[in-house]
Each structure stands twice: as C-alpha cells, then as structure tokens.
Amino acid sequence: MRVLIVSQYYWPENFLINDLTSLLAAAGLEVTVLTGKPNYPEGDFFAGYRSWGVQREFHDGVSIVRVPIARRGKQSRIRLAMNYASFIIAASTLGLWSIRRQKYDVVFVYAPSPLLQALPALLFARMNNAKLFVWVQDLWPESLSATGYLKNAVIMKFVAALVRLIYISSDRILVQSEAFVDRVAQYTERRKIRYFPNLYRPAATQEPSDRAKRLAADMMNSFAVVFAGNLGAAQSLDTIIDAAEQLKARCDIRFYIIGSGSRGQWLAKQVKDRDLSNVELCGRFEASDMPALLQAAGSLLVTLAADEIFALTVPSKLQAYLSAGKCIIASINGEGARIVDAARAGLVSASEDAGALAKSIETMADLPVEERNSMGARGAAYFEANFSADMLTRDLIGQFRELAGKEEAI
C-alpha cells in the first residue's frame, strides 16, 4: 500500500508525525511525506536547507519531498500567516507537480495548526482517486480565536467555510480527543469521524549530551518540577510563573522549563523582573536528551489556558509524560484532566489557578517518594493500554485498508 502524508511540519522538526511515518514504513507501507523546509520553532531554516527549490530526502524508510515556504520568524503574526499560506500554495503547486507521476492509495494529513494545510491533500486525493484521511490536532477556526491570532469575524467565517470543505471532502476524519467528535460533527457526517489519540514512541536509548547530563544532575539536587515543550499562548505560562512566585520560600522546589516558543522572551523577562531564582529556563534540547531529563524530574508539569477549546484538547506532551513513568502535576481542564485522573498518575487543578497549582506542587513535593513512584507506574501502565505506538499503528493501517479496499495481511 502506498501512502502520501501531507504535513507542514516534519523531521528534523520534533513532531509526533515523525514516529508515525517511520512505524508505517517499518510495517511495509510505501510512505512519502510532502512537507516544507524545517524552521519550527525558532523561525529560521535548519542548517543544510535552502529557502528555495524543491528538495528530496530519504530518512528512516520514508521518502521526503520538501517545498519552499516563508520562514515563520519570531513573534510576528504577519510572518506566521505568510508561513501558513506559503506552504498551502507551494504544496498545491510545486509539491503536487513533483509527485504527479506517483499513485497513492491513501492521502493522510497530519493537521495541527493550520488545518488549512489539508487543502493541497484534498486536491491530490481527488485528482488520483485516493482516500483522504485528516488527523485533527487542533479545532479550527476556534483555535485561532482562542490563541488570539485572529479576531476578524469576516475572515473567521471564510476560514470556517474552508474547514467545512475539508471535512466534507474527507473520507475519514481522525480526532486526537474524544471531545472533538461533536465539534467536528457540526461540519460533516458523524459516521466519518473516529477517535485516534496521539501516539508516542519513546526515543531509543542514547547517550545524552553533556549539557543534558549537567542539567539532569542539577535537577537531582531538589524537587524538580519540569515543564517540557512549546512556550506559546496556549500553555498558560503566566500560571507557572505566578505559582513559582508563590513558592519562592520553598528552597527545595525548583522549576525547570525546557523548550522554546513565541512567549520565550516574555518568560525570560518575567523571571528577571520578579527575581525568580527558583525558575531555570533551560532552552531546547534534542529529542535524544529528553528521556534522561524526564527521568531526573521530581514531577512533570502540564498546563493549558482556561479556554473551552483547550478543555477539549489532549496536550500531545501528556502521552510522553505518562510513558516516562513519572508523577504528573496538571493545571488543565477537560479531557487532559480526565486522562490524568483516569490513570491515577498525578494531581490535577483547574487551568489558570496559580494558587491551586502551587498547592499541588507543594503536596507532591511532600509526598513519600514511594507514593510518587506509584503514580508514575500507574501512568506508564495506562500509556501502554491506551497510547502504545505499535497498537495505534496497527489500528491505523487497518483503517487505511478498510477504506482503500486493500485487505492483504499486515
């Protein structure tokens, strides 16, 4: 079976679609990825990639076709809009021309923001009579208003019309949260929608970098509350900062924030202005460093803004946290909170409630180590039962073959 995956983001950018494509290829499927030039999250193109022209690569069993896009830059809504639009245009023209002689059974869209990246996939699927799958990571257009990127009512209506077109034209819509089903069903037939959670494949054991070793050793000197991932508007970073300020007197508790994003500079200014000596801004690390850093944590922290849309979302980092087998502190509402509670893997408080978050952190820090370890073990067991990468990959291949009429054995 031949599968075309359309995703604006791909390796060496760190997204979960990287693992899924490798698993599909390892299962015997012929996989091609149509993507852009890597520049997330820093906004500059990665070393070895030029801004113009179509580039072809082969990595981890997967053929990659890269189209030119405008780099996203830093903290510019105009540049971000150009980045989104350029991928849609380039993928619909140069990308489809580059693979015009190829035939695929399935076209699969990995759809974090922007969902509109599904438009070139829709074109190719219809031109080649292939089945179109869209894996929805963010609800559009709702996510645009929730993050504050777009508030113009006329443009929102236009985006909503395009979203409806994408959903109606899809053969199957996969949603990363069960709470997405009703929202997506407002645009298309419910029968086409399936719950397909985010998978996570733990990184192969590698020697961490010297920088990661030093940071892990430093974490071991206190109760380390570790936040890892994107530093954006959705992550409610002000809640973390407010909680850290409330806990300044607890010399045994330290916050380690690993990652980068649009609010990185704001975060650094807050730490300096409030004299938060208990907060360490660690920057980005390679994926191969993350297992050692997560294992050195006293607890893993996940936060989201108190918006209805985010309450429907399961943060992608949650699967990685569960897999790590460490206790979790969650300042989130809705589906993410439900999963932490169902797994009995940690402590949950409401989004944007810094006081409640600070109390959860103190409570966790004061628990016996054995109790925290039990939470982590329950989380790891829940991960294996619900989010195992191998299990979800087999399920997805079964869905591909169901719709494409390919019933050969896996």
**What share of the residues does DSSP label as strand, in percent?**
15-25%
- The H-level CATH homologous superfamily of the largest domain, spelled out, is Glycogen Phosphorylase B
The largest sheet is: 8 strands, mixed
How many E-type strands? 14
CATH architectural arrangement of the largest domain: 3-Layer(aba) Sandwich
CATH topology of the largest domain: Rossmann fold
Number of domains: 2
Structure annotation, total helices: 16
Note poorly predicted spans.
none
Strand order of the largest sheet: 3-4-2-1-5-6-7-8
Transmembrane segments: 81-100
Keywords: Membrane, Plasmid, Transmembrane, Transmembrane helix
Domain Glycosyltransferase subfamily 4-like N-terminal: 18-198
InterPro entries: Glyco_trans_4-like_N
Account of the 3D structure:
- The chain has 410 residues and is an alpha/beta fold.
- Helices cover 43% and strands 18% of the residues.
- The protein folds into two domains: 2-199 and 388-404, Glycogen Phosphorylase B (Rossmann fold); 210-386, Glycogen Phosphorylase B (Rossmann fold), CATH 3.40.50.2000.
- Helix 1 crosses helix 16 and helix 2 packs parallel to helix 3.
- It has helices at residues 17-26, 77-98, 118-128, 142-146, 153-169, 180-185, 210-219, 237-246, 264-273, 290-296, 308-311, 317-324, 334-343, 354-366, 369-386, 389-404; strands spanning 2-6, 30-36, 55-59, 62-67, 106-111, 131-136, 172-175, 193-195, 223-228, 253-258, 279-283, 299-303, 328-331, 346-349.
- An eight-stranded mixed sheet has the order 3-4-2-1-5-6-7-8, sandwiched between helices. The chain has a six-stranded parallel sheet with strand order 11-10-9-12-13-14, sandwiched between helices.
- The radius of gyration is 21 Å and the shape is globular.
- This is Glycosyltransferase family 4 protein.
- Keywords: Membrane, Plasmid, Transmembrane, Transmembrane helix.
- It holds the Pfam family Glyco_trans_1_4.
- Residues 18-198 form the Glycosyltransferase subfamily 4-like N-terminal domain.
